[in-house]
Amino acid sequence: MSFNLVDRYALYKEGTNRVTRWLVGTATACRRSATAKNKSGIISTRELLQYANLIAGWKPPIEIPGNIVELIKDVVVGRKACAEFYDAQNAADAGHDAFICAPEDIGEKLRGARRSRKKEKGPAREDVSDAHQELGSKGLKAEALRNLFEHLQVEDSSEEAWRSVPVKNEVKHLIAPPKASPTLETDPEEETRFALFCSSRACSRFERSLRRPGQRLAITSSATQQLP
């Protein structure tokens, strides 16, 4: 299916869930007791931040995948765009604004740990996150959504994360990832508002595409290919 026709909310949701799975699985591999208390599989933003702190400070350092760091950044950009939209409508949501802070903090923690590891390993090429800063606000949002779509095409490595974590003072073969697939705790009303925002943006983009003959042909062809 064409990138422009993909459900934006589904992309953001899967991006968030993939990051959550990686954080929980990796934190469990570092220290099993860190995640043992959570039996429900529903993870709060506070817990995620605790896991990120554990991972970022673990010795020996953990290899933090670049696509995980970028997924966090792309999801935050989408959430911020939603917050800006409702702010402009005088319908700001303090809960949604607070929800954005946690992924931002987590991203900073992991980026910092990743940079430190790169310095220890020697000079490396420019971080994609730094390159994104050169984009304008509108370009940043579009680029983040496209990057999110591309990053989600990468095989989900969250289930293997626990196997590659350097373990200290523990027997590695005794460590296993959580049995339940963890998901991030969210507020239903806030999620509905975010889903509506994503749908409205997608509809606007689709409408603009239909006004351009070349785009209309590409979209029609893509949609036809999806028919059974």
UniProtKB/TrEMBL annotation:
**The DUF6604 domain, residue ranges:** 11-206
Q: Residue ranges of region Disordered?
A: 111-136
UniProt feature, compositional bias: Basic and acidic residues: 121-136
Under PANTHER family, the record lists: DUF6604 DOMAIN-CONTAINING PROTEIN
Name of the protein described by the UniProt record = DUF6604 domain-containing protein
| Source organism of the structure | Passalora fulva
